[in-house]
Amino acid sequence: MKKILAIGGLALVLFVSVAAPATAYAVIRSERTSEVASVLAEETAVLRQGSRGGEVKEVQRRLKQWGYYSGSVDGIFGAATKKAVIAFQKKNGLTADGVVGKATYQALGMNDSYNALNGSRPNTGSSNYTSSDLYLMAKAIYAEGRGESYTGQVAIGAVIMNRVKSPSFPNTIAGVIYQKGAFTAVADGQINLEPNQTAYDAAKDAMNGWDPTYGSLYYYNPAVATSAWIFNRKTVTTIGKHVFAI
Question: Which fold has domain 54-123?
Answer without folding.
Answer: Muramoyl-pentapeptide Carboxypeptidase; domain 1 (1.10.101)
